[in-house]
Amino acid sequence: MDKERFTMLLLEPGEIFFEDYSVAAKSIVNSPASETYDEWIDGRLKLCSKSLVFVNKELTKPLIKVQLKELINIEKWSSKDWSHGDDNILFVKCKQYVEMLQGNILAPYKFIHKENHFLFRFNYATIEDCLPQILQLLRATTLPTAEQNAMITAIVHSRQSRVSFDTSWLEDLYEQAVLELQADKISPLVVNPGRVLLTSSRIYFQPYNNMDQHPVLKIQLKDISQIIKRRFLLRQVGLEIVWRMRGPEAKKEHLFLSMRSHIDRDNLYRRLLDQSEVSLETVQQNQMTMQWQNGCLSNYDYLIYINSLADRTFHDLTQYPVFPWIIQDYTSSFLNLNDPAVYRDLTKPIGALEPTRLERLKERYLEMAEPKFLYGSHYSAPGFVLFYLVRKYPEYMLCLQNGRFDHPDRMFNSVADVWKNVLVNMSDFKELVPEFYDTETAGDFLANIYGIDFGYRHDGSKVNDVQLPPWAKDPADFVRQLRDALESPYVSQNLHSWIDLVFGYKQRGPQAVEANNVFFHLCYEGAVDLDTIQDINDRHGLEVQIMEFGQIPKQVFDLPHPKRMLSVPHVVCEKVVGLHDGSRFTETKISEIFTLQQSVVFQSHKDSVSCVNLMDGETGDDLISVGHDGMLKLYSMKTSKLTRSVPLSSLPLSSCISYKVPSQSNILVAGCWDNTIIFYDIEFGRIVDTLPGHEDAVSCLAWSSSRNILVSGSWDCTAKVWRSCSSGKKIKPAECLLAQLDHDAKITCINISGDDKLLACGTEDGELFLWCLEQFSLQFTVKGRMARVNAVVFDPESKQLVSCTKDHALKIMDVTTGTEIYSSILEKEPTSLCWRGTELLLVGDAEGYLSMWDLRGVFILGKFSCHNESITTLMVSSNKKKIVTGSRDRRVIIWDCK
């Protein structure tokens, strides 16, 4: 077929897809006796645990699903009047059938409530292979639901036990098998059985069917960043594996597995951790809480983190991440985030916000027998998640609700109406999902992006996009303002109270009763052990009840959650910036305290400028630049003229630094792509020496004046430390080389700390290496996101290390512990870094913009367009009055900074 339209979301939630057959099909219009037939149609027949699905080869024709429970008869076709002489045909007689994806358009399924007959002629398989399997599943449909599910589980287990992992899929013949077991791959509403094989270098998942994107999923153990134990269907049998895809984007991927038992799950977890290739990115929970508490982690990221700790995952709708309602004003034309009145009271659960309703709930609570509950509905359940996300994931809703959408009047039509309902309705207490605060997706769940016909409301209006409050221009603006509210000082100072209710000590027990936070007892973790319930009908009833009601997150905190000490200063928009005291001001006020004015422009290089350097830091008299044209350029900052142009090499020059030899003039050192380090005497205008320092291009240089050493980084994966040469002597590698520091990939950037004790090296594959320059020993290595480190720089106090990478990340880490204390994904790729003073960080990006970051509060103070192309190099004069930028646009610009 040209395109596979069949997905497991067209089946019942959790239904299993077994086999796929190439067939030709036709419908018998009246009855077998009438001999009135449609034409044969080519397609595929899908055998599933509760249905047969025919996928027409023509994309505009509907898929036909016949549920096994609707079958009247199924047998080998044996009509006496059949003249084609083909006896490899399946005859199906059913009471009703379902048409799906008519015209290849996602819409509610069409249920045909009439008796019909179908013929399926197998092209390759035989009736004898197929029919017994169908009859076995058909027998299961005659049983009660719980017994039917148990029989299907037994059939699945029997089929799986006869299959082993196909070792021909192994990537490396020398990798050793460690563990093989049965497991299900879990995605929202879909369970896909298969086999897991763990080897010494990879973990594989091989599904039993051909529905996955890959016949076998292969994950290198060294790419795994997280392994998390999860609950699935209230049982401790789940395992979520997070890894980074290799490639320029370094995209994060997830594999959610469900095992047969917690013993199997724990065994796989333990064996994974035992493998030497596995190196997890682990940060202790208290460290994360402290980072959030001190303003180094946003409220959004911290809530995502806590949800993960509490077994909430985007891959299981029964345990989807839960976020709070923050704003309670959905009628004003302007949202004033400085007004506390616009915020919801985070000290109370959603059901206790409206006093009148709460009193009615309490009256009912007092009249109940034990176990009592205050709220008969939950704040998060699969139906509530899809209520919000139906426009983004309509196929999930059709799967969950047997091919139907909600009644148009019960859909998510208006934000204001939903907020009103959760305040006053006696059975509506739902909180929000993360998408309400996710600026990356820009509120796409609020728009009918697929143009689906959801029907008409009672007033005749067509269900389309969600109606937003007057203060929001569009979905992206709505989500952005909600995100700003989430990161506001008010929420930052009160969010710990909501965390106590949902994830903390007020979740259960006497504290929950006192806080009016009591839900139905079966939704709490550990309320019932399903594995101990022998009666399958009782067990099934509990599962359905709990799944439909929702689950309380796993309790993360036993003590009151600490209050945040600092609110994260958050950019409301490009022209509005937050200050340390919490006030805000516009870009016009920024210009009053900070301006960048172009002073001199030099455009003399014939290729990209790779590095600039100021020869005299005190007066700033001379400026040097080198470029990919192999040229060295000298400029006079006094006369604003080019004073010298010297061809140092026929290959690109990557970097340059300068130092002063005792009793002599300044020496310029340039790194070249011909593997050499070039020493040029500026006063005498000649090359002093050329050092063949590396086996590949020299990519970067650094100089330590107090230690009198030169450090060179190279594409040969080494950084070399050289002793400065004495005047008039040739440089001999054997005598001047102090240390060779080996790395795992090409070195792209280096920096020496202000106290000359540490050396930081960034590499092509995204790793950061921190070296001690006293013993030339490795302090630690930080694995990145498999994206090139563009620049790295120590803070002026040598306590933190700032790096930027090709995947738009700007990160700050503690040099003592290696702990990441701040991370931000920038709109444009950051390419160069430089400090101006002790707090202001200059960031040049790939589109020629220069940003001013105040790293004490971690916010952008200003943003200026400086070049037409990427800013490749930055330099600040020692008096901080001038900034020099170089770019791929071949220009060097001197800026006056006030």
Feature tags:
single chain; 898 residues; alpha+beta; PH-domain like; Neurobeachin, Chain: A, domain 1; 4 domains; nine-stranded antiparallel β-sheet; 46 strands; globular; repeat; BEACH_dom_sf
Protein described:
With 898 residues, the chain is of the alpha+beta class. The chain folds into four domains: 8-142, Pleckstrin-homology domain (PH domain)/Phosphotyrosine-binding domain (PTB) (PH-domain like); 163-282, Pleckstrin-homology domain (PH domain)/Phosphotyrosine-binding domain (PTB) (PH-domain like, Roll), CATH 2.30.29; 299-310 and 323-366 and 396-422 and 437-568, Neurobeachin, Chain: A, domain 1 (Orthogonal Bundle); 608-835, YVTN repeat-like/Quinoprotein amine dehydrogenase (Methylamine Dehydrogenase, Chain H), CATH 2.130.10. 18% of the residues lie in helices and 33% in strands. The longest helix is centred in the first third of the chain and has 17 residues, at 145-161. Residues 172-273 form the BEACH-type PH domain. WD repeats lie at residues 602-645, 691-722, 740-771, 782-823, 864-898.
